[in-house]
User: Fold this.
Amino acid sequence: MKTVTHWIGGKPFEDASGASDTWAPVTDPATGEVTARVAMAGADEAGSAVAAAKEAYATWRTSPLAHRIAILFRYRALLDARRDDIAALITAEQGKVHADALAEVARGVEIVELACGLGMALKGDTSTEVSSRVDVASVRQSLGVFVGISPFNFPAMISMWMFPMAIACGNTFIHKPSSKAPSASVLLAELTAEAGVPDGVLNILHGGKVAVDALLDHPDVAGVSFVGSTPVARHVYSRATASGKRVQALGGAKNHMLVLPDADLDAAADAAVSAAYGSAGQRCMAISVVVAVGSAGDALVSRIAERAAKITIGPGNDPASEMGPLVTKAHRDKVADYVAGAGAQGADVVLDGRGFTVEGLENGYWLGITLLDKVSTDSDAYQNEIFGPVLCVVRAQTYEEAMQIINGCPYGNASAIFTRDGGAARRFQLEVEAGMVGVNLPQPVPAGYHSFGGWKDSAFGDHRMYGNEAVHFYTRGKVITSHWPDL
Assistant:
């Protein structure tokens, strides 16, 4: 059986003490078969990773920026050559179809490219003669060891949203990926070594809460970047900030898509289907709620149902598949429970994905396309982040009622509006309480040179991901005032 272990100090971690004897299974979601085992770190392994990163920081922090950027350019070329290999690992352990996995890699590479151009963002400012023979300069400097904790749904992309920016700024990094899909992160680390990243600058530590808490408490960790569920994001933020670390922690989402009666309903239906069911709904940017206003409701639901029923579901390595399985049996069963509960709480189950299976792969973690109409906002299906191929439709009579529904949601990750009315769109983008807003676009994922992050219970901390905000997160400012008398 394949074994996935930690990557510490530029090589696979070998624990001479024998303490690394805890393993977790890795399964293929399409078959349900255990295909690998992954090492689960304890406090000792976490300490080894921090020690390696701290030792590497002593020299990496003073390495010329041009040297760091040249390495990242080589890394970008290696990623480009290995896109299919990385995507195949994602499909095998996470379940998404190969095309989705390739798109994930592409979005990660985009941030590597951003890091390659970080010279402009890191340059300081100087003011001369602010007083007689007095100059003032502002510079930004690295902090030390950073930790990144990422979820199962984007094993490669979110990793690349974190460590390239951190190491380009002169820090060292420990990445703690999900144990459900660990292999892609190890390959990413191996490619950094091939590109010339020194030993210990990037480390991979597998594990669960024990390993995470050890990293959050460690005095030599300067900051933590996290993406995952809201309860865990809140825990990471509270525990890490209590020990004096800076934290960016992105949590859960319940993204709404507002459809006004004047919208192009065919375009809105296409957008809802792709945004709700892509990657089996296992995206923090997935549209999970459509708020249909007035006469848009019935026509929109029928269009969504017609399109959604045609989606081909199958294993991710089959080119014909448009949607794959869910990541684990436990998660599939949890999503199915929400579907059952929605019907009991008054929703119209237009499409029911429970009981769906793929011939010959009956042990896979399958759930078919599910569409729930006339969902109550006090139902469990609305109140919770389902994270599966389930789209809820909520009805509203007016724009104002729809906005009360959307802004009343505790999550504020992303929201979108579909309309032909420019005035309504402008009003929406200013009034909606969300960190990312789409206008006639269902998933407003910002380009890399902007920043990614939500509001309310979808984000904790003051810094968002990538863009200039990442530079500010991974560095701290210093102001130097100098006086040199004329000689």
Observations:
- The first helix runs from residue 43 to 60.
- The longest strand covers residues 134-142.
- The chain has a mean pLDDT of 96.
